[in-house]
Write a structure and sequence with these properties.
By secondary structure, the protein is mainly α. It is built from ten helices and no strands. The two termini are about 15 Å apart. Bound molecules: zinc ion.
C-alpha cells in the first residue's frame, strides 16, 4: 500500500480516537498527527518511504560538516603546532571532502535516529530516546521485515505508552497502536492491491499473510 493511503487511514484513526476520548481541540490535533505518523512508522525500515522524508536534509549536513571543517582547519593553522596542527588539518579536510561520498540514505535515517536519541536523553524524555533508538534499529532492517510484525507493534506501543505518560493525554497509546496496526494490516497479501504480504508472526512463524 502507498504511503499516502497509510497516512489517510492514520488520520482517520486519530480523529476517531479523539472523538471517542472526547479530546480538547489541541489534543485532537495531536492525536490526528500521531495517527498519521504511527501509520507510516513501519516503513522506517531501509527502503521505506517515510525514511526519505524524515531524515535530515543531506545537503544541510554536508554544509554543517564542511563549516565545522573550515573552523577546525583555521583553528589548527592558527593555534596548534607540529603533529597536532597536521592532525587537525587532516580531520578538517576529511570533514569537508568525505561526507559527499559517504553519506547514503540509510545512514541519514540512522543519523536522524541518533539526533532524536540525543535530544531525548538530554531532556530526559524517555519516549523520544526510545523512538530515536527504534529509528536507528529500523535503518538496519530489511524492508517489510521486523517492523511489519507483532514485535514492531509491541515496541511501538511501548514508546506510545511512554509518550502518553509524559504528556498525560488520554488516547495516545490507543491511536499509536491502532495506527501502526493499520499499516501492517493494509500491507497484507489478501488485499488485492498488494503483491507482497507481511510475515507478521515472525520469528515465531514464517508464513506470509
Ligand atoms: Zn509497509
Amino acid at each position: 500500500m502507498k504511503g499516502a493511503s497509510h497516512a489517510v487511514t492514520g488520520t482517520a484513526i486519530g480523529l476517531g480516537t479523539a472523538v471517542l476520548y472526547d479530546a480538547a481541540p489541541a489534543a485532537t490535533g495531536l492525536l490526528i498527527l500521531l495517527g498519521s505518523v504511527s501509520a507510516l512508522a513501519p516503513d522506517l525500515d531501509t527502503n521505506g518511504r517515510l525514511s526519505n522524508r524524515i531524515s535530515l536534509h543531506r545537503k544541510w549536513l554536508w554544509y554543517t560538516l564542511a563549516s565545522i571543517g573550515v573552523l577546525l582547519g583555521t583553528y589548527s593553522l592558527v593555534m596548534l603546532q607540529g603533529v597536532w596542527m597536521v592532525a587537525g588539518i587532516a580531520v578538517a579536510l576529511s570533514l569537508i571532502i568525505a561526507p559527499r561520498f559517504l553519506i547514503k540514505q540509510r545512514f541519514m535515517v540512522m543519523l536522524s535516529g541518533g539526533v532524536l536519541t540525543g535530544i531525548g536523553w538530554f531532556y530526559s524524555e524517555d519516549w523520544l530516546l526510545y523512538f530515536g533508538l527504534f529509528t536507528i534499529i529500523c535503518s538496519f532492517l530489511p524492508h517489510r521485515g521486523l517492523t511489519h510484525t507483532w514485535i514492531g507493534l509491541a515496541v511501538f506501543a511501548f514508546i506510545a505508552w511512554e509518550l502518553e505518560k509524559s504528556l498525560m493525554i488520554n488516547g495516545i497509546l490507543t491511536v499509536c497502536t491502532l495506527g501502526y496496526l493499520s499499516h501492517i494490516l493494509l500491507d497484507m497479501k489478501m488485499l488485492p492491491f498488494n503483491k507482497k504480504g507481511v510475515k507478521l508472526l515472525q520469528p515465531l512463524m514464517n508464513k506470509e499473510f
